[in-house]
Design brief:
The complex is a heterotrimer of chains A (252), B (303) and C (330). Chain A has 252 residues and is α/β, with parallel strands linked by helices. Chain A has a single domain, classed as 3-Layer(aba) Sandwich (Rossmann fold), CATH 3.40.50. Chain A is built from 10 helices and 10 strands. In chain A, the strands form 2 sheets. In chain A, strands 6-7-8-3-9-10 form a 6-stranded mixed β-sheet, sandwiched between helices. Chain B has one domain. Chain B is 73% helix and 3% strand. In chain B, strands 1-2 form a two-stranded antiparallel sheet. The radius of gyration of chain B is 20 Å and the shape is globular. Chain C is an all-alpha fold and 330 residues long. Chain C has one domain: ABC transporter involved in vitamin B12 uptake, BtuC (Orthogonal Bundle), CATH 1.10.3470. Helices cover 73% and strands 2% of the residues of chain C. In chain C, the strands form 2 sheets. A two-stranded antiparallel ribbon of chain C has the order 1-2. A two-stranded antiparallel ribbon of chain C has the order 3-4. In chain C, β1 and β2 form a beta hairpin. Chain C is globular and about 55 Å long. The two termini of chain C are 19 Å apart. Classes of the chains: A alpha/beta (252), B mainly alpha (303), C mainly alpha (330). At the A-C interface, α2 and α3 of A face α6, α7, α8 and α9 of C.
């Protein structure tokens, strides 16, 4: 079975610190693959490497049948490998509609229109509106992104990534900073997306991970210590040790 | 033998640029401030020294007055204006310090007029030294090189060995950490700025007898200092040193030899025209080349 | 909320109409008060407004703080000056290009060369960001300044005066009022074009780059191309402004490219209001009028202007346009 994304033997060092340590990972077409691990395990570094924001010191990244290891972030995004950010990165002075219309424009790849108002282009406005309704931001179309509540900004963040019609979404902690209510909302949203788009999900919220993931990989010190179905991972002693720490594991 | 002399000239010019670049790059590296008025401090040093030297006849007095004036005015400006700009974006910093330049230049014009001021050399450095047989070189220029090398060494020790240096190396990004250590950051900033101003003043004092002391001298040299910093890498004293020597050499040597070399290819008048044009652009072309090769300079300070 | 937005919008519209009316009525007004020589001042304001508005495109909307915009202004001026020199001389530039004093030749040439200079400088400078970018644009502009100084054929340091103004078919450009209106039409034309462009796909992407470059790259929009296109466009318009300034004064000199000119342009943009487009013209008017008034009062007017600028930056955030239009933006 061919993988949509296949990363092999990735390495990233920052000075003496090894952030990604000979890591191999794949995401199959249509699956939701969760990446978990304690703080500092190198999850965000890995996402940045996969998205093309950080250059790997070694290893290969194949996506959708092509070697993308040398491409920059924008070029990878245009191929359908799109990330979202842990720290919300919507455009604060743009309205919700404008944020999404720009993401639609990014997918279309036509940026050198100099005369026609973007707001008057159905090709930009209509898909943006559709997505807004789908994601539940329809009421807020004309609000500036900076005026949104945190949970709404997270939704917009996700919607922008979706507007580019990605093949694979790299979601960096979509639930970061959300309350329980907002989290449930987001989980439901992701559940609806599942199957339509492949997802590599980095998340701390275990409830979310086990509700969404088809497979789970556990990252510790930049390397994968376990990978498999959610139930198997939950029972894996190496995972328990990584999460609870050696002392507690021995004491238990 | 002319070559040896021009290389020394290049080194001397480079050293002057280093004195300015070091202060500018420290202030940027630590406070995150781009200070266009750094050249004004150089001008203040030169004017104050020329005035004091002409009034007292003593070079030592001139030196102390020049450096003191630059440092004092520098620290005063830091306290009144610049420290309010540390947290601002670069655009605000640029425009506000541009306003300072207008003020200082015009104030200097009001005090000293538009005619260049004469700055005398100390008599004990007025002669020349025979470095190599048959190559006499002005002692004063040699002294500039020596002073500059001493300053470079002292700065190196300061940054590498002292507590202040540690804070300097911690840099802009770790400001919060430094604050958490219980250091009076405001005082450190004023001191670092004063040090930069002192060095700019020193450069101004020493430049007086070599170049002309006049309004606008600061900006000419400021822009070259920027070139130095871009080539060397922002925030790095070592980069500033290497960059300054490179710029000093390239500028001096192309001005001295390029028109002559071109005469082999072109007619005399054309060679002069093209040679002067190209040599006045040479350091900027060097900068462009460095940018193509290493966009962040030769010795980027952090990361 | 929506109502409030509309109200603000109307107020800005009124301001635009008032501005337009002022521009159109100015020559008539100065004639009415018996000061017709002030038409030249008006033309200068409009020309600098054009250059400043082009700078606002990259600084205010693109977030690229360029401290070298006068370089392109100067290139445009020198194109006009050099072509006029050869037209008068009957010689060819570099032995191949004949001179010209036709506006329809010289001005497009100024636009193209201003754009090309910006393309080359931008291609290099945009490899960096932030304070690097400021210093590098300043340094490259200084390089072109020295190039202009070294052009001994064209007057070197002293500059080059030429006569007459570039000719436009069907118009007497020597007539100050006619020339003023030519400038006004070009300025208004550019402002309309720029407004459309900023609301179109390109402008949306450009404003997006300013707000969050990383986000745009993550969406698949490479910021470099967008920024370079905007930088080149702004350079081309500055080239046109330089050509107009050369015509206004019938004189070009390295002063056009002096680094303080770049500083002046930035001040105009900030004074009028960053990212307001029309504000730049207002900023140009205020700065030039302030300079003229201060200069009449004391020879050392810069000793006043300098601290005024510092105080404006420290204490008065946002520009005049935002205050007047009630649309203060960050």
């Amino acid at each position: 079975m061919s993988a949509l994304l296949e990363a092999r033997n990735l390495v990233k060092r920052f000075g003496g610190l090894v952030a990604t340590n000979d890591l191999s990972l794949n995401v199959r077409s249509g699956e939701c693959h969760a990446l978990i691990g304690p703080n500092g395990a190198g999850k965000s570094t890995l996402i940045a490497q996969l998205a093309g924001e950080l250059r790997s010191d070694a290893g290969t990244i194949r996506f959708d049948g092509a070697d993308v290891g040398r491409l920059g972030m924008a070029a990878r995004a245009r191929r359908g490998l799109v990330r979202s950010f842990q720290i919300t990165a919507v455009l604060p002075d743009f309205t919700v509609l404008e944020n999404l219309a720009l993401a639609v424009q990014a997918r279309q790849g036509r940026h050198y229109g100099f005369w026609r108002r973007a707001a008057d282009e159905p090709a930009l406005r209509d898909p943006a509106r559709r997505l807004m309704d789908e994601i539940g931001l329809g009421e807020l179309a004309e609000r500036k992104a900076r005026e949104l509540a945190h949970g709404e900004q997270r939704q917009l963040e996700l919607a922008m990534a979706l507007a580019t019609e990605p093949k694979l979404l790299l979601l960096d902690e979509p639930m970061a900073g959300m309350g329980p209510e907002e989290s449930r909302h987001m989980i439901a949203l992701l559940q609806r997306l599942k199957g339509g788009v492949s997802i590599l999900l980095v998340e701390h919220d275990m409830e979310a991970v086990f509700a969404l993931a088809d497979r789970v990989t556990v990252l510790v010190y930049g390397g994968a210590v376990a990978s498999g179905a959610p139930d198997a991972i939950r029972a894996d002693p190496a995972v328990i040790e990584a999460y609870l720490g050696t002392d507690e594991a021995e004491g238990a | 033998m002319l070559l040896a002399e021009q290389i020394l000239n290049g080194a001397q010019f480079g050293i002057m640029l280093f004195l300015l670049a070091a202060g500018l790059t420290l202030v940027f590296g630590i406070m995150g401030l781009i200070n266009l008025a750094h050249g004004s401090l150089y001008m203040i040093g030169a004017f104050a020294a020329a005035w004091a030297g002409n009034a007292t006849g003593s070079f030592l007095t001139a030196l102390l007055v020049g450096m003191g004036a630059a440092a004092a005015i520098g620290m005063a400006v830091e306290a009144v204006v610049l420290r309010r700009l540390y947290a601002r974006d670069h655009l605000d910093q640029v425009v506000a310090t541009f306003g300072l330049i207008l003020f200082f230049n015009e104030a200097a014009t009001m005090l000293f007029g538009r005619q260049p001021l004469f700055a005398r050399m100390p008599p004990w450095l007025a002669g020349s030294v025979e470095l190599l047989p048959g190559v006499p070189y002005p002692a004063y220029r040699l002294a500039i090189i020596a002073v500059g090398l001493l300053v470079a060494l002292a700065l190196y020790l300061l940054v590498a060995r002292t507590r202040l240096g540690m804070l300097i190396r911690a840099g802009n990004s770790d400001r919060e950490m430094v604050r958490a250590l219980g250091v009076d950051i405001g005082l450190i900033y004023t001191l670092v700025f004063g040090l930069g101003a002192l060095l700019a003043g020193l450069a101004g004092v020493m430049a007086g007898p070599v170049f002309s002391v006049q309004v606008g001298m600061g900006e000419q040299v400021l822009i070259l200092t920027f070139v130095v910093i871009i080539i060397g890498g922002i925030g790095s004293v070592r980069g500033a040193f290497i960059g300054a020597l490179l710029v000093g050499m390239v500028d001096t040597l192309t001005r001295a030899f390029l028109p002559g070399l071109l005469k082999a290819l072109l007619s005399t008048s054309e060679a002069d025209a093209v040679g002067n044009g190209v040599s006045s652009m040479a350091v900027y072309l060097l900068m462009a080349a460095v940018l193509l090769w290493r966009p962040r300079g030769l010795f980027p300070a952090h990361g | 909320m929506a109502k409030l937005t509309r109200a603000k919008f109307t107020r800005e519209r009124i301001l635009i109409l008032v501005g337009l009316a002022l521009i159109l009525a100015y020559p008539w007004g100065v004639a009415a008060v018996g000061q017709p020589f002030l038409i030249g001042l008006g033309a200068r304001i409009l020309v600098m407004g054009l250059a400043a508005a082009s700078l606002d495109l990259i600084v205010g909307f693109g977030g690229m703080v360029s401290f070298g915009h006068a370089a392109f202004f100067g290139v445009g001026g020198y194109v006009v000056g050099i072509l006029a020199f050869h037209a008068h001389d009957g010689t060819d530039l570099l032995g191949v290009i004949p001179g010209s004093n036709q506006a329809l030749v010289a001005w497009p040439a100024a636009i193209v060369l201003g754009g090309l200079a910006a393309l080359a400088i931008g291609a290099l400078s945009l490899r960096t960001t932030g304070v690097h970018f400021i210093m590098i644009t300043l340094a490259f502009a200084q390089m072109l300044f020295f190039l202009a100084v070294s052009l001994k054929t064209y007057g070197g340091d002293d500059g080059l005066s030429f006569r007459p103004r570039n000719l436009l078919p069907g118009l007497d450009t020597r007539n100050e009022t006619s020339f003023y209106y030519v400038v006004a039409v070009l300025l208004v034309g550019f402002l309309i074009l720029a407004r459309r462009l900023l609301d179109a796909r390109f402008g949306t992407a450009l404003r997006g780059v300013r707000e969050n470059e990383r986000r745009l790259a993550a969406l698949g929009i490479a910021p470099y191309g967008i920024k370079l296109a905007a930088f080149t466009l702004a350079g081309a318009v500055a080239g046109l402004a330089g050509a107009l300034m050369a015509n206004q004064a019938r004189f070009v000199s390295p002063e056009l490219l002096h680094w303080t000119k770049s500083g002046d342009l930035l001040i105009m943009v900030i004074l009028g209001g960053l990212g307001t487009l029309y504000g730049s013209v207002l900023g140009a008017a205020v700065l030039i009028i302030l300079e003229t008034v201060l200069a009449a009062w004391t020879e050392h007017w810069m000793v006043v202007l300098g601290p005024v600028l510092v105080a404006l930056i420290l204490f008065a955030r946002g520009g005049l346009w935002g205050v007047l239009a009630g649309t203060r933006r960050s």
